[in-house]
């Protein structure tokens, strides 16, 4: 049985630095894109590959509105965002950014609604 290796402190630290930088860029409106200018976007997590060359960026637009349009705008502006991150973090290689929607909030809401359903409540009351 092989266990997944734990993330190193370095990959976690660099991921958090990238998250802060991207959040700041998006908050200040540095990206000249109408879609991104009209939406508040939360960068919820950044997962770095062990070699720090790839970063998976999880984002969520405020209230989950226009998620596909926001993802498309981020992907369109990836080159600019990669340059900005590389400029602000002194590393040997600039990390390639990949933007994905953060589904964890949706999963949490789904689990919450299941736990509140009459069927589950009835089973829990029996204990």
Report on the architecture of this protein.
There is one protein chain. With 127 residues, the protein is an alpha+beta fold. It is built from six helices and three strands. It has a three-stranded mixed sheet. A hairpin with a 5-residue loop joins strand 1 (41-48) and strand 2 (54-61). Helix 1 (9-28) packs across helix 4. The longest helix has 20 residues, at 9-28. The chain starts with 8 loop residues before the first helix and ends with a helix. The model has no long low-confidence stretch (mean pLDDT 84).
A few lines on this structure:
With 127 residues, the chain is α+β, with helices and mostly antiparallel strands. The chain contains six helices and three strands. Strand 1 and strand 2 (54-61) form a beta hairpin.
Keywords:
127 residues, alpha+beta, three-stranded mixed beta sheet, 6 helices, 3 strands, flat
The number of helical segments is: 6
- Beta-strand level of the residues, as a percent range? 15-25%
The biggest beta sheet reads: 3 strands, mixed
The low-pLDDT segments are none
Query: For the CA atoms, what is the radius of gyration?
Result: 18 Å
